[in-house]
Amino acid sequence: MEIRDLLLPESVIQNLRVSSKKQALQELARAVAGQVDLEERAVFDVLMEREKLGTTGVGNGIAIPHGKLAQVDKLFGMFARLEKPIDFQAIDEQPVDLIFLLLAPESAGADHLKALARVSRLLRDRKICDKLRGTDDAEALYAILSDSADVQAA
Hints:
It is globular and about 35 Å long. It is of the alpha/beta class. It has helices spanning about 5, 20-35, 40-55, 110-125, 125-135, 140-154, and strands at about 10-15, 55-60, 60-65, 65-70, 75-85, 95-105.
């Protein structure tokens, strides 16, 4: 599974302006709903339910909010680089500035876990994260994410 299987060029937000975790999830839910014809509230609710189980702030300024929805027919990702880091209650207590949202069909099972692992592996690479933090161009962000996936898969 490659990042480009999850993420479209138009699913990259280069400078998301938010001041809280809740606002970030609301804005991402709105953006996702507009791209894949979902109810914004349904997306937000599933993301918030997952956060209640434990933070998806995985450390090093990265969050990977995710959830499953019956209305989703395939894995779908969205990436956002925040204009300013926010408190995401991350496991390392550091603010988050890179968010990769992942939605999956309720029936996804192992594919959902594989996609989460793929995104996590990619964003654990400090060089890639440094590149992502060093640009505010959506096309460049998409290229870093999708090209880096090729290198790591090899």
